[in-house]
Input
Amino acid sequence: MKSAIVVVRMCVIAMVLILLYSTNAVLSQEMTERQFILKPIGFVQKEKGRTTLVLNKEFEPALRGLEGFSHVWVFWWFDRNDTPKKRSILQVHPQGNRKNPLTGVFACRSPVRPNPIALTLCQVLSVGGNVVEIDKIDAFANTPILDLKPYIPGYDSAKASVPNWLRNRSGPIEEEHGERGKLGLPEAVEKEFVRFDDPDQIVIASRFAQLLKKLRADQIREAKSRLRARLQSKIPEIRRRAALTLHSLGDDSGVAVMIRDMKEVTDQRDRNNIVVALRVMKDSRAVPALIDCAYDASPYIRSIALAALGELKAADAYEAIVEHLHDYETEEGDCFQTCPAHLACYALGALGDKGAIPHLIEALDHEETRAAACKTLGKLTGEQFGYDAAKWKQWWEKEKANKRMNADQ
Output
């Protein structure tokens, strides 16, 4: 009897185990086959030296508070590597270097992996609306963005160790944050940065940029990072220097700062320097601000703004430029004594609009604009009639008659 009970118990236990195993097997299969839907929250955009994360409008509220962080983790999709073949690759030689040992994709940063998710730590330059401007990202334009998370030093940093193949590679292993992550710069460059930070020192941004271009690639990245940080300086002159130096290094992240400063800074000397910076950087984003500057109280600012608009070939500014052909005011203390009308002539030549010819012929009658108008007329027409307004008018009438004749034919 007892043996029969034991047999029954063993049968029951066996049945329970079989049931549990089969249930777990089913659950395991279900979990393995389970799929998730990921939808992009936005896309990476790269244009004219700017890198931005443009989120879908519906997610704009989710950006609230991000401006308080200096860095953000960007999760994005390796969409150009998303094929069944590349998803099936589980081992690679890291960085495409066969000298590195064969390594599992979960132990390196290879773009080929079962789920092609990428992660990049980026510096936040600005947050506005549904757009986050960052310093850089190792993703192509129009890459899908999956998520953003702020970088929090206490949570996201660790005393880390790495395998030999990574430790022994050429160049330093970049640790972007904390004292251990600071890359050394040559003593001469460090001294220049000290001068750079003194607004009373004369610093020529293009020369400083030339010095930086001689550095190693990792040192240039460090220098750019320092310059971007100086775009947030409380001193307008430091921000201007940083913007111009970055521009010379192919980074126009300072343009937006200069546009803002042109509207907000009140010191006249700073404003004079800022409008010159906008002219040097030649960025179409500045056109609206430069049109506003064309009506500034300062004739110097008006002059530089007109020249910049012409060089940018800003067709929207044509009327404003023509309007200033009679603006003969000069800045008190300006050693060049250049009036806005003079630069308006130059700007019309830079625009290349022959519709301005009648206005320029009229400008020949005024001493302040005679030389500039003559030079621009020669540039636009290829003719040389000097300051003789009558000959220019006669030539222009013939040109109009020929155009009418050709149109009738």
